[in-house]
């Protein structure tokens, strides 16, 4: 039997959705939702993403750009699907819906989802990339040193990012979403630590994971500060355009860092991963057992965890191991 002291990457990932969890394994993904009547609905589908089969998606630093786009697209699709279970049944089709369906041949939902995704990306660029630049530029008459201005811009970017994370975490409606986010992480950690995927084992697993989107966003902020410090132009317009043009480069570098973090346990990786993992204390919350059940259903729909444990850790699962136990008392996850 192989050593289970360290986790071993399974390659699966996911995200929390409204009253559920989406899990993705290669091109297959599953969305498990706890419906209003208490039943768990599982939808399984295939998502090929941008440029399916293209060799560009295998090139280091380039693949991260496509991965980011695909994650945004599938994320919006999954959230819209989960929200459909909680929409008002009496809600009528709007005039905009009818017009878009007529023009697009019934593809109004896809068009609106695309518009929402583009708007979300544009808003993120405005808040996290351009706003810090303009705020730091206002200090130019007081700070003559360009290097110091670049450091101030980076500091403002960190403050805005932290304020966003903290502000979102304090919203009451987001709390359950973050609990499902915790359930998603716990399932992946449970498997990658070599434990049978039961509710008991999931609940005692950690809700923090090195491949989390929160950590990715931290790396985006960190990498952007470094690049903007060393790559400069004098013209203010070019400086704005440069920041926008470097976004794919930032995404590509950040993806490679987080990909490496998910596959390595060396001390350097632990150090650079630490800030993002600390932020996950805010973006994940401890789920209850019913949420863990939903997350497990999502995993099992796209991933053979028993085969994974056999191939990776060298043992077969006996059915007697799958008898779940109600914990006597809540304990600190490991």
Explained architecture:
- This protein has 334 residues and is of the alpha+beta class.
- It is built from 12 helices and 4 strands; from the N terminus they run E-E-E-E-H-H-H-H-H-H-H-H-H-H-H-H.
- It has helices spanning 63-83, 95-104, 108-137, 146-169, 175-192, 199-203, 213-230, 236-245, 247-263, 267-283, 289-302, 305-313; strands at 13-17, 20-25, 28-34, 40-46.
- Strands 1-2-3-4 form a 4-stranded antiparallel β-sheet.
- Strand 2 (20-25) and strand 3 form a beta hairpin.
- Helix 1 crosses helix 9 and helix 3 (108-137) packs across helix 4 (146-169).
- Mean pLDDT is 88; it is low at 328-334.
Task: Please describe the topology of this protein.
Blueprint lengths: L12 E5 L2 E6 L2 E7 L5 E7 L16 H21 L11 H10 L3 H30 L8 H24 L5 H18 L6 H5 L9 H18 L5 H10 L1 H17 L3 H17 L5 H14 L2 H9 L21
Antiparallel strand pairs: 1-2, 2-3, 3-4
Helix pairs in contact: 1-3, 1-9, 3-4, 4-7, 5-11, 7-9, 7-10
Rg to the nearest angstrom?
A: 22 Å
Number of helices: 12
Q: Strand order of the main beta sheet, please?
A: 1-2-3-4
Outline the biggest β-sheet. Answer: 4 strands, antiparallel
Report the strand count: 4
Quote the beta fraction: 5-15%
Q: Quote the average pLDDT.
A: 88
Residue share in helix = 55-70%
Structural class: alpha+beta
Order of helices and strands: EEEEHHHHHHHHHHHH
- Low-confidence blocks of residues: 328-334
Structural shape? globular
Distance between the termini: 21 Å
Which characteristics define this entry?
single chain; alpha+beta; 4-stranded antiparallel β-sheet; 7% strand; globular
